[in-house]
Task: inverse folding
């Protein structure tokens, strides 16, 4: 009896505590940052302006190639504020006006904006129009005033504007209508009311306009012709002298336009240097009295003495970069010079008129491979001993940004991560005995204290301090940032390739950079001036040899954009970041096909197709060749020629017939082709399934105990074409002349399995293909809304296998091999829904076994990632689902897809400039890892069907233990009590 | 109920809308009933894949319809290749061009005449069968001005074709007068592994189908009254209302236990006092067993 009365409250208590553990789909506020991380970047810096006012924080304003303007803390390199302008709003110039406004000129010189320096709020924006397209130049003179108004001078679109710094009002403008005039410099000599606009016209004419800065009146217009023409760069050596090169690059021209008179001085380079070795180019700079030219072998610094006389001051064959000019005192101007010498860089700060004396000379050891210095920006400060100190901001070849001061790197930013071009995931090392990284829990007391706190939290007894302590404990838990594999597969390395050609490994636990490697093949070198990284492939993923082999990735890089440019394959160890090997290929690469075969060392076989349609097998081992030969006739691939609308299917034919070719080269042949008529179809999207996607079951049980078989083929290609007219801007086409056709093509036989036309629809199309369905997003011109359509494809040839008796007697065809050469018997189901957002990227969650239901991850225009349940995009949704359908989980039909604010994966954060979303399955079936990249990086874990297969992280084991102990104790006590009672009863 | 009717009517109109007003690009393929023996068959309202089952037709038995309009009749040839050999003529497609009032042109009445294999071709085909190689065919991509921009190629493993004779199946995807793609293969399945089997008769039975694009179903447009303003999306996400038991079972079970406990205790007390220890033990056994279940 008593047992029961004791037991009941405990049971009640235990049940209550369990029910409170029901997991939730969205995050609670205190869970932010537990499993996700977010990193902010700005991209490669184009221009930097320092703002070091006496008061306030030291900061530097930068504009970048990712179209970001940002204010960075000079002490730590953190971002104060940041704005991402659109990709069609390229920043042409930045400056600081009145010491408190950041002025930016963008969109080819047509948009001028002013931002408040402390907080980055926009003050005003003005649109500057002009008669023709031209180079845009921004000039913010310090002391030019028109009626107490500070003036910004902008040359853009063939027109010179003077804009008020206070409100952005255009004070005056002046057109330069001469057809071929190309402005190169806008000069405002300090202390005068004149503006000079100099430039070239008709390639051989130098023109100079003198303009009154107060009202835009043209005072003087001079021109002079130089018969052999000019190169399009000038260097400003004083406010009334520029230096240019003639069109052959061998004669220096000193052009002076003092008092409105143009005079030329010619100096052949060969008279200055004995061996000029080829044509020279001018390095644009504005150091008074000195300019630099660059030939193939040398960088030459030349001083201008007096009336157009030139004198070489230095000739160096090191890579040299010159900074901007910094006025330090009356009449004195300093500039910085950075030279490479091995792993060190030498920094020298000089006064403009005194080449031989150095204000500062330092050499700085680079901590890692960063390549060449691309840009230098100089700034000064007053040292404690009242002398001038200098700090420089340098931009490296790998797009990183470094601040140098007192011979050391004060801070560095890895801004190459703002332009990720490819991502792959790699496992971490297996935890080995002896080298265990895991720390033993500090001591028992700490452990108990931690669990007591958790217990308090669970029982809602915790005070605010306790809550804070719990939070910090969770964040600190070193568990998630360990360098070993975990049981659930949450810890991985994300290997990313950036546009600069640097490879980074990011830890999924906290996003830190585990290693980075600037590939040798992606350095700019004499043989290759513009190397580009193409793709990243998993080369070796050891499972059987996980203890003694490291996984590696294959990086494919090419010299320049043309498809037959030389290609380098680099193999990089993902644990250490070491380049294991690199191969320079003799053939070009158009297409890389990872094959589904691995050799005995678990290296994946790759087929590289070159521009002559030869296939090359890698790795070049005899074992790989043997495996390849075995599967020779089962290898098919396709190629898309989107410029002329042809898709072709290919297969292997035989060994290469060229004598020069090795045994790993194979001839190919065309098997099929699909030609889209050029007047009605332009390919705008092609999507296939992910190679590593796992599908759990082919059968799908639908409402009335019926089964449908998904048509699951790895060889399906989704193609979307639009009317050629409809591929322009939105608004350029009427609904009647715009359509979108979606195709499903089998890539082995070239069969079109499904083809559907959406009239009145247009691109851009974003699509995702998973299992047997495709979801695509496009714009509906008739409804003036974005739409998402789903196509599901089912296999009818297996549809007869519903009879139990057939299955029992083995008369089914479920285990027979499928040949794609059979006539396909498929049916498709499709449905369209409206969707509010325009989309930047679409991905789908992927899990280890493919059991968990799927969610679509939609990168919205607001740079957030929205998780949308696939059930909303079910083609079988109907207005009134039957009871059976409701049980199956079919949602009643609505015309648009719901956007639930809680289902934003990125919660309150924004992944600025979102470009791609990558999902990686964790080992735990319910969970998938999501990595979104753009200018920012974001990572999180997602459980589309909630974590049904594990306890949540904040599960209190102590509470469970306590409950069990208490129950056991209670059982014993009551047992004793009842014993005693029975004894008493017996004695009665 | 009324609203549902209204909705049904609206949806119906929406679905019919494209066919009523925008007959545009109507890829409707007019099937000549007479030719395909579909007399009395209802005209398909919109383009079903039109099976022009031209049955085993060979040049010898085929007769030209003299009543065809000569200026709108076209022919285009089918070429074939054995393995990697060059293409050579293999047969002729003939069709009529139907010009629509809006200017679009489509093909109708597709017929196909296949040339028989010559002895040499037969030998080549046997070689293909033995080496399990590809039999390739090609069509011009534009039937008015062949070959158009490029040829449409399709291939099939030769071993898929032989049955009794040689069976082949064409699905020609058209876009106006342009051939987009051709699905070529055996009319049935082609089992894997492919076994070597020589045909008994060296004549082709060809099946040809012309296909045009289907219209996508429109996104359903609901009127405001159904949506009920903004909570249309909200309705969907709300889980269905659960029953009282489903919601509170975790409280009800312990509560039930407590109550039962109390009752039995209350019942036991007087009984024990009244009947003494024997009855008490007897009573306790079953009742506790019952409760533990």
Result:
């Amino acid at each position: 009896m008593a047992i029961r009365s004791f037991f009941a409250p405990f049971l009640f208590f235990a049940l209550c505590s369990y029910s409170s553990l029901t997991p939730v789909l969205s995050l609670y506020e205190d869970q932010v940052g537990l499993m996700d991380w977010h990193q902010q970047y700005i991209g490669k810096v184009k221009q930097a302006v320092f703002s070091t006012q006496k008061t306030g924080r030291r900061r530097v304003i930068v504009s970048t190639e990712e179209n970001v303007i940002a204010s960075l803390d000079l002490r730590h390199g953190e971002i104060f504020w940041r704005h991402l302008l659109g990709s069609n709003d390229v920043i042409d110039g930045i400056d600081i006006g009145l010491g408190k406004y950041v002025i930016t000129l963008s969109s080819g010189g047509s948009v001028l904006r002013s931002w408040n320096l402390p907080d980055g709020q926009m003050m005003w924006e003005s649109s500057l129009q002009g008669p023709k397209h031209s180079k845009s130049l921004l000039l913010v003179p310090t002391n030019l005033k028109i009626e107490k108004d500070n003036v910004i001078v902008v040359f853009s679109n063939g027109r010179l504007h003077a804009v008020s710094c206070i409100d952005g009002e255009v004070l005056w403008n002046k057109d330069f209508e001469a057809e071929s005039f190309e402005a190169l410099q806008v000069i405002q000599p300090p202390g005068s009311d004149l503006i000079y606009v100099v430039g070239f016209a008709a390639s051989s004419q130098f023109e100079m306009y003198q303009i009154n800065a107060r009202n835009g009146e043209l005072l003087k217009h001079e021109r002079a012709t130089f018969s052999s023409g000019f190169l399009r760069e000038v260097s400003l050596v004083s406010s009334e002298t520029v230096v240019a090169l003639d069109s052959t690059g061998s004669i220096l021209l000193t052009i002076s336009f003092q008092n409105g008179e143009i005079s030329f001085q010619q100096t052949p380079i060969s008279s200055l240097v004995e061996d000029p070795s080829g044509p020279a180019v001018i390095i644009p700079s504005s150091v008074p009295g000195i300019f630099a030219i660059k030939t193939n072998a040398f960088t030459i610094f030349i001083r201008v003495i007096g009336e157009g006389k030139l004198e070489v001051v230095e000739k160096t064959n090191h890579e040299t970069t010159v900074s901007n000019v910094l006025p330090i005192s009356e009449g004195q101007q300093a500039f910085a010079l950075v030279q490479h010498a091995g792993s060190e860089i030498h920094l020298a700060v000089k006064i403009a008129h005194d080449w031989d004396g150095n204000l500062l000379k330092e050499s700085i050891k680079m901590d890692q491979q960063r390549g060449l210095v691309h840009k230098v920006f100089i700034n000064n400060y007053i040292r404690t001993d009242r002398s001038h100190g200098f700090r420089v901001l340098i931009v490296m070849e790998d797009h990183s940004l470094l601040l140098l001061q007192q011979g050391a790197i004060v801070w560095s930013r890895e801004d190459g991560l703002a332009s990720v071009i490819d991502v792959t995931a790699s496992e971490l090392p297996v935890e080995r005995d002896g080298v265990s990284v895991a720390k033993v829990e500090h001591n028992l007391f700490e452990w108990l204290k931690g669990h007591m706190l958790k217990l308090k939290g669970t029982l809602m007894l915790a005070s605010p301090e306790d809550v804070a302590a719990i939070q910090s404990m969770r964040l600190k838990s070193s568990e998630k940032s360990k360098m070993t594999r975990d049981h659930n597969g949450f810890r991985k390395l994300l290997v990313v390739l950036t546009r600069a050609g640097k490879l980074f490994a990011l830890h999924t636990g906290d996003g830190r950079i585990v290693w980075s490697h600037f590939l040798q093949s992606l350095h700019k070198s004499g043989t290759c001036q513009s190397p580009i990284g193409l793709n990243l492939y998993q080369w070796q993923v050891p499972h059987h040899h996980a203890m003694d082999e490291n996984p590696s990735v294959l990086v494919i890089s090419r010299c320049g954009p043309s498809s037959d440019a030389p290609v380098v394959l680099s193999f990089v160890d993902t644990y250490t970041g070491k380049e294991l090997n690199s191969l320079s290929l003799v053939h070009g690469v158009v297409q890389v096909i990872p094959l589904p075969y691995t050799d005995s060392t678990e290296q994946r076989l790759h087929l590289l197709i070159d521009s002559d349609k030869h296939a090359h097998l890698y790795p070049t081992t005899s074992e790989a060749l043997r495996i390849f030969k075995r599967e020779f006739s089962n290898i098919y691939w396709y190629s898309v020629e989107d410029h002329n609308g042809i898709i072709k299917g290919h297969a292997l034919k035989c060994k290469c017939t060229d004598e020069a070719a090795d045994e790993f080269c194979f001839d190919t042949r065309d098997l099929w082709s699909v030609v889209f008529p050029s007047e009605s179809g332009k390919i705008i999207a092609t999507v296939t399934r992910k190679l590593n996607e796992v599908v759990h079951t082919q059968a799908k049980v639908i409402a009335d105990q019926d089964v449908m078989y998904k048509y699951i083929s790895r060889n399906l290609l989704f193609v979307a074409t639009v009317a050629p007219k409809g591929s322009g801007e939105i608004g350029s086409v009427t609904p009647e002349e715009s359509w979108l056709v979606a195709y499903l093509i089998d890539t082995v036989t070239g069969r079109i399995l499904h083809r559907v036309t959406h009239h009145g629809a247009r691109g851009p199309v974003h699509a995702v293909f998973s299992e047997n369905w495709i979801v695509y997003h496009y714009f509906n011109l008739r409804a003036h809304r974005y739409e998402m359509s789903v196509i599901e494809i089912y296999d009818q040839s297996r549809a007869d296998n519903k009879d139990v008796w057939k299955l029992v007697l083995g008369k089914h065809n479920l285990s027979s091999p499928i040949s794609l050469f059979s006539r396909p018997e498929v049916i498709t189901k499709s449905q369209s829904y409206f969707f509010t957002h325009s989309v930047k990227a679409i991905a789908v969650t992927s899990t280890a076994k493919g059991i968990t239901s799927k969610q679509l991850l939609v990168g919205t225009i607001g740079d957030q990632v929205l998780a949308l349940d696939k059930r909303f995009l079910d083609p079988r949704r109907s207005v009134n689902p039957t009871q059976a359908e409701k049980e199956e989980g079919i949602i009643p039909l609505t015309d648009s897809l719901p956007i639930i604010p809680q289902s934003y994966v990125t919660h309150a954060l924004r992944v600025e400039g979102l470009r791609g979303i990558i999902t990686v399955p964790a080992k735990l079936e319910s969970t998938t890892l999501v990595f979104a990249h753009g200018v920012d990086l974001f990572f999180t874990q997602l459980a589309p069907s909630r974590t049904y297969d594990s306890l949540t992280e904040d599960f209190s084991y102590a509470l469970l233990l306590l409950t069990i102990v208490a129950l056991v104790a209670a059982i014993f006590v009551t047992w004793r009590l009842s014993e005693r009672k029975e004894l008493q009863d017996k004695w009665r | 109920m009324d609203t549902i009717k209204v909705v049904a009517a609206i949806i119906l109109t929406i679905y019919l809308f494209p066919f009523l007003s925008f007959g545009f690009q109507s890829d409707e393929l007019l099937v000549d009933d007479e030719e395909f023996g579909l007399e009395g068959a209802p005209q398909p309202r919109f383009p079903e894949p039109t099976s022009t089952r031209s049955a085993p037709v060979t040049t010898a038995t085929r007769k030209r319809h003299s009543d065809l309009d000569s200026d709108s009749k076209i022919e285009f040839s089918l070429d074939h290749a054995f393995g990697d050999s060059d293409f050579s003529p293999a047969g002729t497609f003939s069709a009529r061009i139907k010009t629509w009032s809006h200017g679009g042109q489509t093909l109708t009445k597709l017929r196909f005449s296949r040339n028989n294999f010559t002895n040499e071709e037969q030998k080549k085909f046997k070689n293909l069968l033995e080496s399990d190689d590809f039999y390739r065919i090609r069509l011009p991509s534009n039937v008015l001005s062949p070959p158009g921009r490029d040829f449409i190629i399709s291939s099939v493993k030769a071993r898929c074709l032989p049955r009794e004779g040689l069976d082949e199946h064409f699905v020609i995807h058209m876009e106006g007068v342009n051939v987009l793609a051709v699905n070529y293969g055996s009319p049935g399945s082609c089992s894997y592994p492919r076994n070597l089997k020589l045909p008994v008769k060296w004549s082709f039975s060809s099946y040809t189908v012309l296909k045009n694009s289907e219209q996508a179903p429109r996104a359903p447009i609901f009127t405001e009254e159904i949506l009920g303003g903004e909570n249309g999306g909200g309705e969907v996400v709300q889980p269905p209302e659960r029953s009282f038991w489903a919601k509170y079972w975790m409280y009800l079970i312990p509560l039930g236990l407590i109550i039962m406990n109390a009752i039995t205790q209350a019942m036991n007390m007087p009984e024990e006092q009244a009947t003494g220890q024997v009855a008490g033990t007897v009573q306790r056994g079953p009742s506790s067993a019952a409760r533990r279940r």
Summary: Chain A touches chain B through 75 residues (CB under 8 Å). Helices of chain A lie at 2-19, 269-272, 444-458, 464-476, 622-630, 804-809, 883-888, 957-987.
